[in-house]
Amino acid sequence: MILDLNFQMKKFLIGIFVTAMPILGKAQDSQDKSSRDNLLNVQIDKKWLLLPVKNGEERKKMVLRDGDKQLRSFDIELTDQDPDWYAYLDVSAWRGKTLSLDVHTGTDMSRALSLIKQSDKEIDKKTLYREKNRARFHFSPKRGWNNDPNGLVYYNGEYHLFFQHNPYGTEWGNMHWGHAVSKDLVHWREIGEALYPDSYGTMFSGSAVVDKNNTSGMGDGSDPPMVLFYTAEGSWVQGLAYSTDGRKFKKAETPVVPKITDGNRDPKVIWHEPSQKWVMVLYVELEGKQHSMYFLTSSNLKDWETTDVVKGGTDSDTYLFECPEFYELQVEGKPGVKKWILTGANSEYAIGTFDGEKFTPESERLNGQHGRDFYAAQTFNNEPKGRRIEMGWWRTKTTGHGNNFNQSMSIPMEIKLLETEEGLKIARQPVEELKKLRKKHHVFENRQLRDGESFLLKKIKDDFLEIHTRFSSITSEQIIFSIKGVDVIYNVKDETLSIDGVDMHLPLTNNQLELTLYVDRTGIELFANKGVYFMPVNINVDSNNKDIGIKVKGGSLRTESEVYQLRSIWR
Ligand code: FRU
Predict the structure, then answer these.
(1) Got the DSSP string for 342-367?
(2) 265 ligand 1 Cβ < 6 A
(3) Active site residue 148
(4) 522 and 383 within one domain
(5) Structure confidence by residue, pLDDT tens digits, 408-431
(6) Residues 6+ apart with CB under 8 A from 107
(7) 291 C-alpha to center of ligand 1: Å?
(8) What is the Cα–Cα distance from 566 to 435, expressed in whole angstroms?
(9) What atom of ligand 1 comes closest to residue 266's alpha carbon?
(10) Which residues pair with 251 in a beta bridge?
(11) Could you tell me the residue range of the domain that residue 81 belongs to?
(12) Is residue 270 lining ligand 1, measured as CB closer than 6 Å?
């Protein structure tokens, strides 16, 4: 922990309740002469300190201390105006103690400090998850910002979704691992931060495993430990944390992998059954901005040895850049035939073989997805049904004044490896558990549409939809499927599909086009050709526009559709 030696001089104790006391006009250190220190001492008797935030205000450094000991340090758009929202700082570990909160800024923050509350309850419960632009069946954080999914794992009856989280602001920063759990991959319960920044740095992305054989010795004799691997930003070491209850995490005192080069990050760890070893894939930038994935192995999760380096693109060519993912899949319909898949954050991937130490690509740079702003996807370790399930960060357009949260994850998808005319390809489908969200069902039977005709899919009231549609006997030039003001346009001649300026080449099969679309407030995820084509497009869908319709230009086709209105995942 970093100690602030000036701290002693600033200490100022005030009674039991939250009171604000600015200490005026004192320079913080020689680099920051204009700074004015604002200090609040508070006796902790509740779970959270609620900190008033206004998006867009100057970020100030806030430090929480117990005497000389720094407990938390982060940047926050602390406000002395009417706050947009309150950030929740969990202080339950220090109940009964008097802690100090210190804001480093040049301005007097006494009003902001006086707005800080203590609470055991979430005071925004009535509005939380009902915000106007909150996705209804995509995970998003209660408050603050999220980016990458981290540590996806199934452990003791629950799916765990950790995520890159800024709990104190709606933009990137202060990286923590947020934590949510689910019994069904669909309904998530966010339960607070799992990993906080420490003296090695903030908590960058990583993964989680279940150490069933207790190879690490970190189990408690009955429950196998869940072990997390993360990057500490700045020192660029790989750290380990473990838990035997899936709730409390203890960090190993020293990092398990030292820095290889600046910026190396995002360890993905898996168990390799044939060699009875753990394998870590780590993103490492080599000289000349060469992206690469390092392969390391270990028998106890603590001592790691490099066994292979696979090179990707350089500089702005982001093939195999950050957030590695590595897993084995059986080729569909070919029992016993298995291949390994290696991907980076942009989902471009290689298919190849792996002997426990070395990955040998057989085909490279395959395009993993065709959408916009789907990134850093990861798959679940230890999935109980043996499925390969993936979720990605979906950079939604939810930045805005007044918002208490920003960004989301994609829906969970099952990945399979298919033989196609263009060789082996991964394919994604929404997980079957999503069917739980279905409520009203609408069927639109097979009909013919001619040039210039359009057809309205009537009586669909909700904003949240699962749509299956098939176009066949196509002689038309263009199909426009309008969903609440968003046009999904298919140009038959050049076989391209586009949504909001995002295009993909999508070949017809037997003169047919079959689409599955999931429509939420923050965008559309489209699946075609057995899921080989996946196109997530982040676009805010107008909830006032209820029109869904199909229009045909230059020729005819037959069309049939099925639509489900979907429930919210937030109870
Ligand atoms: C990808 C990424 C990771 C890093 C994390 C930091 O989005 O840049 O490489 O660990 O985000 O938040």
Answers:
(1) EE-TT--EEEEEE-SS-EEEEEEEE-
(2) yes
(3) yes
(4) no
(5) 999 999 999 999 999 999 999 999
(6) 36
(7) 14
(8) 9
(9) 10
(10) 241
(11) 7-119
(12) no
Q: In terms of C-beta distances under 8 Å and separation of at least 24 residues, what long-range contacts does 539-543 make, across chains too?
A: 539/397, 539/486, 539/499, 539/500, 540/133, 540/396, 540/397, 541/463, 541/483, 541/484, 541/485, 541/486, 542/484, 542/485, 543/463, 543/484
3-state secondary structure of 382: coil
Whether 299 and 277 have beta carbons less than 8 Å apart is answered as: yes
For residue 304, the domain's CATH number is 2.115.10.20
What tokens does 111 get?
């009003």
Q: Are 445 and 403 within one domain?
A: no
Tokens 């960058």, residue located: 204
| Predicted confidence (pLDDT) per residue in 276-324, tens digit | 999 999 999 999 999 999 999 999 999 999 999 999 999 999 999 999 9
pLDDT surpasses 80 at 1: no
Residue 299 lies in a domain: yes
Say what the alpha-carbon torsion angle 225, 231, 233, 237 is, to the nearest 10 degrees. Answer: 100
* Residue of 322, 343, 374, 407 with the most ligand 1 atoms within 8 Å of its CB, for mutation: 322
Please tell me the distance between residue 148's alpha carbon and the centre of ligand 1 in angstroms: 7
Domain count, the chain: 3
- Does residue 475 surpass a pLDDT of 90? yes
What one-character-per-residue DSSP string does 248-299 give? Answer: --EE-SS-SB--SSTT-EEEEEEEETTTTEEEEEEEEEETTTEEEEEEEEES
Instruction: Give the residue from 52, 43, 50, 41 showing the smallest Cα distance to 94.
Output: 43
Q: Is the pLDDT of residue 477 over 80?
A: yes
The CB of 285 under 6 Å from ligand 1? The reply is no
CA of 514 to the centre of ligand 1 (A): 35
Strands 405-406 and 144-155: parallel
> Among 80, 102, 148, 266, which one carries the catalytic annotation?
148
- Residues 384, 472, single domain; the answer is no
Quick check: CB of 196 below 6 Å from ligand 1? no
CA distance 344 to 474: 37
For 39-68, the pLDDT digits (tens) are 999 999 999 999 999 999 999 999 999 999
Residue 565, ligand 1, Cβ within 6 A = no
